[in-house]
Amino acid sequence: MELADRAVGFLLSFISLSIFTYYTFWVIILPFVHGDHFVHKYFLPQEYAILIPVFAGVTLLSFLCIFIGYVMLKSKKKKA
Amino acid sequence: MKHIVKIMSLLVVMLAVWVGLLQASIVPHSYTWLLPIYSIVSLGCYGLLMVGVGLMQFPTCPQESVLLQKDIAEAKEFLKKQGVDVSSD
User: pLDDT band for position B71 (50/70/90)?
Assistant: First the structure.
């Protein structure tokens, strides 16, 4: 079904654009805004701007390592 | 071997640019510290965007699909006549 493909593609691009704008706003624009502007309510404290990508990257790397290890173990067990 | 050398040299150049920015203080210091993470996140976002756009623009050819199904049926009949077992179990 090309409609399902198109919906998934639209969802992916929407997610990526929203993440990009949110992160750009967070890192670049927010330090220039006054401390007591109301926009600061919608954004987490700035340390999380570093913690969340690093945490996601570490999770991705560990998941990849676990997956590779699991596949290697399974292939070795099948051969033996 | 040469491909690794190219990738490594690219990484070294980017690292040198970053350290140079840190020393020269053209941009405010807090921005320079966040620059690598920001570029990695935006690179990932760009990849995801390209995948999504490619998915949305993927061309399906309905007429070709019908013709292909006809071809498959024809081939199955022919092979069954020749005695080859082409059941998809």
Answer: very high
